[in-house]
């Protein structure tokens, strides 16, 4: 019986790639040093899977930044502004596309479907020229083969690549990147030909677009692509992951089809009804998106029912998707509670689960392994630490009720302006300021009990005071305290809520070298005590300007955690909302007049199928409103959202009823603003980001002013805020100070111009 892994985390068990990348970017190490770290990681991953008994091991799932960017490099799809003149694409061009440089902005970045992973969006137009410009897929296949591991090279499929692309700046709105399908397929054929010559017997095309609701034209593109590739694929086994049953029977070039049988609730029934004979079925029964141990007995039952349909020789046990969305290895979690640890499986453990299921199907079941798994499943179901009846009842009482502030947003903004007395185009930042090496050291030593609480509070107070004074010097209107006490915007709150567990090395890639460490929600959630009031009150006492209280919203805490899978997600979200509601009320009582409740991840939780989206939007928006429905009109509620396509949920954003919303916007060339050009009326405050904080590039005041002017063309002056794209945590003060100076100067310049125009 065969086993397969769709993809694997590439940062390394202790973020080895992250540190190597950042050292290289800072000029502290060479390209050869970076390549050595990368090669060692790839080698260890391939050998790990081979030692575990996996038959179909992926290659080319490693990336120095992002697989979509790798595909753009493979196709030679480099925007003109990067000055690339052909040939093999090197680090300079590759990282400039990803991060920008001193003179050229980066490409747009957005979320990968409904995950927290960000990809670099290709920029294409009718005149884009394609050429085979990165041989990475072939080189990595050969690299693995030299180590004695025969892998399955993985490519982003041509339909998904084009579907996720955007029209380059200046290209007519009617242009469709899918029209370039015939232009990119010759490059794919060159890659396939080289892989065959190198000895590859299988190739995997990742086509996640096929889980969406596609129209006839989009489905036709899929059929056309793989029909056109058929002659090139001759002699190769070809796997499509994932796929739609309605399209597969006509594709003779495809040998196997992969399905997510974890999230695809109806997929199993469809497979049972209409799977084509003679094809391989890669059954994704091990969850690639969460960290709970697989219920091996239940998965084995599913696999045995599939075996009866497709036959033993054609069934392959697989993960539901790439394991890059999970933490790497549970072995590194030496401080995790033993009972909770027994309930978990990280990527390394999921590899073992996949092979254990494959062996069990082949009548070689590891009884001890299955028995330990059954005991862990029973322990989790019966553990008293999972359930809190009082919390369950409070959350259940929220269903069917509406929670809104009593006054409409226009009246609230008037009341808030009288109290806050802000200028037009008020300036603010999103929350965090640079997290220096010294600051991280202080937090680390306090956690390890190497310094006292008094010493810790004194150090954090000094940092807050520095941030407050800097903002006053820059003349920013609404201040933040900089969040020096926080390790992560979700983990910080989870550590103070009941029902959460935490890891030491449970890192997951978010974008580039940026990793997050999602908390684990294992039980009912409640707030034992105030979480932020002490620091926010301290910061407010340092200034006469408004100080924002900074909170993470319930939907974002949910979507950026590993969530319990034993109850509906909305029930867990309502529990978190009630906890945040208490914090909002305590901040208001402490005199904090502006409270930001970040919902950075609202969009990414949107289900991929349209039939499921209305229900999600209803409970997600409701959860946000629960947090602040009881505050006074004069208390201004802000929220913030990260890179995503917001246009299709704009009405839900409006329904959130926040007083001010800030949105990441700068990399998209104001694509967000198009929704307002098309007639959507928005009466609350809004701050589309005026510069990109994910790049070290410092924009000029003139550039920022130009961007604000574009916003003023579609938004009312009295609702527009001026702010960066996101928090400044990952930047250096040498970048932050001049960028914020230019931002404030731009706002002041436009205030003067607007005043003189009256």
Automatic annotation (TrEMBL):
L-homocysteine binds at residues 430-432, 598. Signal peptide: none annotated. It comes from the Eukaryota. 5-methyltetrahydropteroyltri-L-glutamate binds at residues 18, 116, 514-515, 560. Residues 425-748 form the Cobalamin-independent methionine synthase MetE C-terminal/archaeal domain. It catalyses: 5-methyltetrahydropteroyltri-L-glutamate + L-homocysteine = tetrahydropteroyltri-L-glutamate + L-methionine. CDD domains: CIMS_C_terminal_like (cd03311), CIMS_N_terminal_like (cd03312). Its EC number is 2.1.1.14. Pathway: Amino-acid biosynthesis; L-methionine biosynthesis via de novo pathway; L-methionine from L-homocysteine (MetE route): step 1/1. Residues 3-309 form the Cobalamin-independent methionine synthase MetE N-terminal domain. Its cofactor is Zn(2+). Zn(2+) binds at residues 640, 642, 651, 655, 664, 726. InterPro entries: Cbl-indep_Met_Synth_N, Cobalamin-indep_Met_synthase, Met_Synth_C/arc, UROD/MetE-like_sf. Belongs to the vitamin-B12 independent methionine synthase family. This is 5-methyltetrahydropteroyltriglutamate--homocysteine S-methyltransferase. The lineage of its organism: Eukaryota, Viridiplantae, Streptophyta, Embryophyta, Tracheophyta.
């Amino acid at each position: 019986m065969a086993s397969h892994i769709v993809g694997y985390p590439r940062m390394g068990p202790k973020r080895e790639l992250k540190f190597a990348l950042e050292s290289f970017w800072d000029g502290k190490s060479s390209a050869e040093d970076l390549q050595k770290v990368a090669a060692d990681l790839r080698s260890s991953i391939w050998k790990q899977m081979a030692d575990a008994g996996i038959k179909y091991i992926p290659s080319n799932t490693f990336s120095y930044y992002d697989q979509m960017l790798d595909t753009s490099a493979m196709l030679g799809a480099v925007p003109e502004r990067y000055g690339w003149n052909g040939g093999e694409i090197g680090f300079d061009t590759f990282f400039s596309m990803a991060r920008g440089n001193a003179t050229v902005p980066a490409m747009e970045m957005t979320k990968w479907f409904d995950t927290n992973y960000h990809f670099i969006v290709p920029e294409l137009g009718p005149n884009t020229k394609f050429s085979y410009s990165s041989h990475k897929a072939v080189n990595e296949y050969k690299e693995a083969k030299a180590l004695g591991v025969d892998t399955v090279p993985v490519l982003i499929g041509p339909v998904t690549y084009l579907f996720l692309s955007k029209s380059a700046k200046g290209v007519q709105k009617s242009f469709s990147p899918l029209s370039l399908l015939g232009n990119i397929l010759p490059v794919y054929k060159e890659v396939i030909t080289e892989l065959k010559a190198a000895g590859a017997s299988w190739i995997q095309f990742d086509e996640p677009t096929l889980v969406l609701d596609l129209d006839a034209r989009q489905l036709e593109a899929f059929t056309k692509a793989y029909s056109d590739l058929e002659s090139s694929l001759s002699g190769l086994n070809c796997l499509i992951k994932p796929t739609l049953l309605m399209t597969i029977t006509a594709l003779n070039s495809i040998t196997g089809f992969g399905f997510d049988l974890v999230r695809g609730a109806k997929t199993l029934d469809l497979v049972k009804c209409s799977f084509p004979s003679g094809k391989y079925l890669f059954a994704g029964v091990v969850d690639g998106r969460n960290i709970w141990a697989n219920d091996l007995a239940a998965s084995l039952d599913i696999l045995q029912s599939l075996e009866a349909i497709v036959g033993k020789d054609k069934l392959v046990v697989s993960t539901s998707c790439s394991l890059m969305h999970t933490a790497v290895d549970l072995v590194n979690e030496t401080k995790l509670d033993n009972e909770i640890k027994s309930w978990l499986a990280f990527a390394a453990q999921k590899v073992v689960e996949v092979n254990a299921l494959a062996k069990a199907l082949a009548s070689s079941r590891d009884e001890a392994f299955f028995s330990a798994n059954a005991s862990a499943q029973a322990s989790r179901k019966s553990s008293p630490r999972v359930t809190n009846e009082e919390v369950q009842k409070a959350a259940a009482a929220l269903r069917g009720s509406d929670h809104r502030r009593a006054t409409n947003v226009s009246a609230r903004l008037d009341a808030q302006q009288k109290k806050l007395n802000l200028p037009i185009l008020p300036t603010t930042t999103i929350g965090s300021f640079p997290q220096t090496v010294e600051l991280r050291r202080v937090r680390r030593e306090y956690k390890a009990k190497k310094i006292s609480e008094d010493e810790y509070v004194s150090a954090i107070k000094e940092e807050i005071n520095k941030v407050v004074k800097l903002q006053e010097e820059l003349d920013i209107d609404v201040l933040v305290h900089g969040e020096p006490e926080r390790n992560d915007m979700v983990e910080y709150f989870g550590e103070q809520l009941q029902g959460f567990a935490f890891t030491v090395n449970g890192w997951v890639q978010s974008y580039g070298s940026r990793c997050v460490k999602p908390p684990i929600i294992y039980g009912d959630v409640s707030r034992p005590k105030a979480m932020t009031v002490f620091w926010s009150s301290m910061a407010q006492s340092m200034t006469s300007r408004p100080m924002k209280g900074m909170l993470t919203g319930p939907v974002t805490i949910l979507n950026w955690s590993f969530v319990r899978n034993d109850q509906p997600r909305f029930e867990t979200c309502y529990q978190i909302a009630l906890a945040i509601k208490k914090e909002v009320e305590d901040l208001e009582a402490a005199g904090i007049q502006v409270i930001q409740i970040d919902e950075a991840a609202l969009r990414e939780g949107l289900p991929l199928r349209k039939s499921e989206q209305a229900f999600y939007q209803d409970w997600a928006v409701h959860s946000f409103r629960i947090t602040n429905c009881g505050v006074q009109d004069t208390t201004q509620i802000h929220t913030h959202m990260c890179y995503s396509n917001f246009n299709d949920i704009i009405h839900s954003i409006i329904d959130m009823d926040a007083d001010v919303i800030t949105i990441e916007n700068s990399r998209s060339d104001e694509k967000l603003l198009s929704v307002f050009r098309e007639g959507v009326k928005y009466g609350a405050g809004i701050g589309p980001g005026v510069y990109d904080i994910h790049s070290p590039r410092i924009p000029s005041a003139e550039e920022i002013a130009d961007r604000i002017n574009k916003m003023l063309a579609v938004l009312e002056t009295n609702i527009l805020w001026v702010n960066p794209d996101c928090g400044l945590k990952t930047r250096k003060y040498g970048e932050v100070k001049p960028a914020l100076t230019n931002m404030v100067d731009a706002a002041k310049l436009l205030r003067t111009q607007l005043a003189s125009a009256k």
